[in-house]
Structures are given as C-alpha cells and as structure tokens.
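Researcher: Structure for this, please.
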Amino acid sequence: MRIATLLLLLLFSLRALAQNTATVAGTVRDRATQEALPGVSITLEGTDFGTATDAEGRYRLTGVPAGAYNLRATFVGYDPLVRSNIALSSGNVNTLNLELNTVPQALGEVTVTANRAIRVATAETPLSVQRLTTEEIKSNPGGNFDISRVVQSLPGVGGGGSGGTAGFRNDIIIRGGAPNENVYYLDGIEVPVINHFPTQGSAGGPAGILNVSFIEDVTLSSSAFQARYDNALSSVLQFRQRDGNSERIQGNLRTSGTEVAATLEGPLTGNTTFLASARRSYLQVLFKLIDLPIRPDFYDFQFKTTTKLSEKTTLTSLGLGAIDHFEIVPPKKSSPSKEYVLRSNPTIDQWNYTVGLNLRHLVENGFVNVALSRTQQHSAADAFEYGYTGDESRRKLGARSGETENKLRADVNKRVGRWQYSYGTVIQLQHYDNDLTQRLRSEVRDASGQLVSPAVTVRFKTDLDFLRYGAFVQATRTYGATSRLTVSAGIRTDGTTALTEGYRLDRTLSPRASLSYALLPTLNLNASLGRYFKIPPSTILGYRAPNGARVNSDSRYIRSDHAVAGLEWLPGKATRFTLEGFYKKYAYYPVSVRNSISLANLGGDFNAIGNEAVTSTGQGRAYGAEAFFQQKLSGKLFAIVSLTGFRSEFSGVNGIYKPTAWDTRFLGSALLGYQLGRGWELGAKYRVGGGAPYTPYDEAASRASYQAVGTGILDYSQLNTRRLGGFQQLDLRLDKKVNLRRLSFDFYVDVQNALLAKPVSVPSYTFDRLPDNSGYVTTDGQPLRPDGSNAVPILLGDSDALVVPTIGFIVEF
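Model: Predicted structure, token format:
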C-alpha cells in the first residue's frame, strides 16, 4: 500500500512539473526508388502543426504538445500515408522515416486518396499483408514488448498456446503451416533466429530477442511473397528499424516484472548515427516467486549504425545476439509423479548472433542493394535420470549442435514509366554440426537383479558444409487508361550442394503472380498464385547413419503452392476491412522412416535433435478463410478484430490425410485501445482458438515399456484423433504517461490471462509414485514388475490457471 501511495504522489508531482513539448523528425522517400522527396506536406491531424520536407527529404516538427497523434504525409502523384497513434514524448526526439507509393491515375481524387492512406498492400503484394507500428507493439496488452507475441494477434496467426504449441512459446504458425516455414528480415538482412531458446530447425521460443525501441514497423506477408524472398512457405516478416537520432545523445530505460533493458542512441560523427541496447531477464526470479516450473534466464544485445557515405550511398551495419539458459524445476505444490516427469526434462544452454552490412546506392530511377551477413548459433542440451545430474552413467541426453550461415545478397530495383522491376542473386555458405548421445531405452532388471532388457543408446556425430545459391526477377505494371489494374509477376530458382540433385534448378523454378483491380475507388479485388520452395532443415540434411553416410541427401526441396483471393474495402480514412480465402498445397514434405508419419503430424518441436531418417514423399494441404477489421486511432479509440477458419492436413506413407499438430480449425482475436486523456491509456486483447489435435497413448505398450523408455508410447493407429480443449486468454493494460522538459515516464500495469483460463496441453504418461518419491505405487504392494503389470498408470495434465501481473515503467531521456 505504501508503494502504491508513493507512486501516486510521484505521478502528481511529476505532472505538476511537466512541460509537455515534443519533437518529431525524419525523412520521406519514394518507396520504389528510395529517392528523397522534397516538398512533401507533413501534418499532425487535428492540430495546426505542419511543415514540408526540405531538398533532402527531411522534416522536423517542434514544440508539439506531448501525446498521441496521427501523422499524415501528402504529395502530388503519391498515395497519402498516415502513421496512426504516434506517441510523441518530451524525453526523446521521435524519429519517423516514411516511404510513399506512387498513385495510379484513376485514383487521384481527393476523397479516394484520403481513404487509401490506411492501405498496407503494395503493387507487388496486394493482399495477405498486415503491418504493425512500434506504438502498436509497445502498447499491446500481454505483449510485454515482445514482437513475436504481438504478431499472434494478426489474422491467420497461431502460437503461444493457440496453435498446438506450448502456451509459453512464441512459435508462429500461419495459415496451418509449420513454425519453421517463416523467414525473418531485419533491414533487409535475413535473421534466422528472433527468439530466445529456439528449437533447432525452427525459430520459435519463449521470448523475443528484438528490441522494440529499434523498430519502426513490422510487415507480415502470409502469401504473395515477392520473388526476392527464398525459403518461405508460410510467411515473410520484415522488421524495419529506425535510424538513431542525429541531433543529440538520448535513450531509454525499460523495466518490468520480467526484465530490464537500456537503449542509447545518437550521432557518432557528422554523417553516422548509432543505436545500441542491452537487456537482462529476471524471468527466473518471477517464475520462482509464482511457483512456475520453468526457469528461463537470458541476455540479449542489439546495435545499428547508419552512415551517409555520399548523397547517393548509405551504409548500414547491424547486430543481434542472445545468451540463454533454461531449466525446469518442480514447483513447491507438485505431486511426486509430476516432479519425476519435470526433473526428466533437459537443461539447455544456447547462444546465437547475427551481424550484417547493407550498402544502398541510388542509381537513375532506382537503387542497388548489397548485403553481407553472418549468423551463428550453438545449442547444448543435457538430461539425466531423476536426481542424478552430472552422473554420466545416468545420462539420458547429451547434445551439442551448431550452425553457421554466411550470406551475400545483391539486388537491383528500378521504376521506368508504368513498370517497376527488380532482379538479384544470393549465395550462402553454411556449416552444421551435431554431436548427440541419446538413451532410447534404459536398462531393466527383474526383482532378482537379472537383466530383462539392456540399455539402448544412440550415438551420432555429423559435420556438414554446403553451399546454397539462387536468383530472381520480378516485374510490376499498371494497365488501362485509368490504371485500375495492377499486375506483378516474378520467378526465382534455388540450388544447393547439400542434396544429391540440388543442382537441378529446374526442380525449384518458383513462378508467382498477383493482381489488383479497383472495382470501386474504395474497393479492390486482389488475387495471387505462387509456388514456393524451402530447403529441408540442417537437422535433416546432416543426419548420418552409423556408417557415416548422409541418409537424407536424396531429399527434395519442400514445395508449397498458394492460391489466394480477396477483397479490400476502405470505407473511411481510418477504417480498413479485408476478406480472403486461401488454399495451400504441399509436396515433397519429410516423412519419418521410423514410423511412416509426416513430420507435420508429429508436433511443433520436430527437427529438434536431428537423429531421424526421412523420405520426401509427404503431401499436405491447408485451406480456409479470414476476415480482418482495423480502426486506426480516430478520436480516442483504435481497434483490430480478426477471425480465421482453416484446416491443415498432411499425409504419410499411406497417403491418408491426418490433421497436423496445429490444426486448431479456428483462431480469433480482438484488440481495443482507448485514450482516456491526461496521459492515461487503456487496452484489452482477447484471443481464442480451437483445440489442437493430439495422439493418445497406447496403454499396453506404454505400461510394458515405461521403465525402459521413461515416457508413454503413442498409438499412431489413432494419429491426432483426440483434441485438446479450446484456448482463450484476456490481457489488460493500463498506461500513464508523464512528460517533463527533457524527460518522460510511462508507468504501466499489464495483466496476462485476466480470466484465469486454464492452459491446454497434451498430458504426460507416467506411473504413480509413493508420497516420499522413493518408488512407484503398485496394485499389489510388491516391487514394480519389469513389464509394469502391477503399476498404476496416470496422465498428468497442466490444469493450473495462472494470472501474470506486471508493473513496470519506461524512462526516456
């Protein structure tokens, strides 16, 4: 109570001292050519503040009362652009760079262009695209400044418990695709890992790495990807970072119940700016206090520099890295059986980084990009029998794996008349290694000590270096006297030395096309067709048989064909509505040789270890429809509502389609924000999803094998025939912002799972244990028999509803 009273007194005293003036500055460029645009009109809606860009495309508004605004940019021959809910504070100079699209001749009327300002789509990607601004990420209830978690509120996006994955993870599952079907770009540099504690072969994990203070906006394309993007089957996420402040040193400090982060930025020289940040988690302390079994502990670091080499040439450098430690500790309120299962989970230590250079040079009617990057990641996992950590005779798992990618990418982008075109190439040198020891069966002896079945341990070691390469071309054109029709088409091809026939570029020809037709000035009909390819994960490519041969070298690139059609309606200058239907057809999907089942049917954590032989014989399909409504800040209210219905099914050797592990059938989300005035803002987010399928245990096999295997045996004759209960979660957030002369504060309270909804997860199979945990409960009071016939099998579920409140603040200086 004393802390709450002191906090209120501090808020009132700060308000009395507040001098609420802010500055917003940035540059405006032509999106297609990256040429600076002079004379662009910049205004803050609902105010008298406005200016025009100078000869270098720069603008600056000063003396603005701190608060939330919609910033509008207008220029003759270009679509207007509105950046909604921009929070201007007195602590920092707010940097906001803008890119404008040229406007088709038919849509040049004032009333039409006003509505088009809310559009996210581009000529190349006219549908299946959404965008989040930095303010939408920062203020997202339950998001905890985590971009990966905030994205899950967009249409067709599952994960975090709503897509068949664990509720504490950030696995992004889009339109029925696997978590590893997405690719991520940070300022044009591919970043394979964007989460802490990633599963190898996937990018998901419990917490995001990216610092939201760096981010200008995030664009999600869930289909109609440009040909420049390779290895994407479900989505492309583009994270665009802002430049550091060129005027003075400034920064912010953010703290909450889970972490503390510091960001610093400013000029390094007359032509160079920088951004740098470091973050330390104390999630392990919070989870210990609230008696959660998981103990994640991490650091992350990020930087960006921007150097203006000349009027036409800009060099950007960036870096991103993380250090992770993860273990599971049984909670105080835990049954002996649950404690036994939890202590059987591995301890994980990981680190990763990405560094890159991007050179952009303006040429006549366009620009050239050259990007060089390096990514490296290392993972170590150890698991021992219950209570015997460090005893090598009791080791169940020891895994050491690493992956390194060195990539060079170059592309040319131009606009000539009604045509826009681009072409480019990429070459990548990749290394993968894995040293694995895994006990598949423990030794079992009878009551007299005689050996019933010996231990079975797999040891495998691999080291693989290979090359990847590809090229693309893309062209876009408007048609008709009034330019109502826009068509874009592209093709790419990719090859690799990691596959026996990876040189067959004809096998990976990837044509794609999209069109947009203006039925009415505010109503567009959009459609796209495309074929996309993805190389199998390194965990599959590098697997070797006991004789050292790479058994999966005959695999194929995974293929996915997309067909999407939809409508986009812009009924008002701040309102957007889309309706889309999609169909995705998969081919050459990996199928397990061990059990003849598609990896898509086995769960979100597949490819975690890599001790699996596969064949490229699987088929798959995902189809559905989604609706999306967005109301940008209008007055004091903003809202997002999305609904998706879908099916996701894959087949194994038998050719029979079965639901995937993330086939929840339904996803929905609603986000509401309200500006209460005087610096107060209230937000609420509600997510709901259908139940994910799972495979039940084979009772007889599980009972007989439990002592040897340590887990239940799944009954694959009933593959994914059961379903979990539905998922729902309500998150709430309240912010109070206070601005001083050169200092600003944002105090917030965030509550996750306010409805105390119970988590949904697949139950664990085990035998009931004695209260003192010294052995197993048996039906006859005798020692447990080797075949488990006198055991008491139980299924352990996670039924503990948990609400997670967070109190924190952000200081800008």
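Researcher: Any notable elements?
Model: The CA atoms of residues 336 and 771 lie 6 Å apart. DSSP finds eight helices and 46 strands in the chain.
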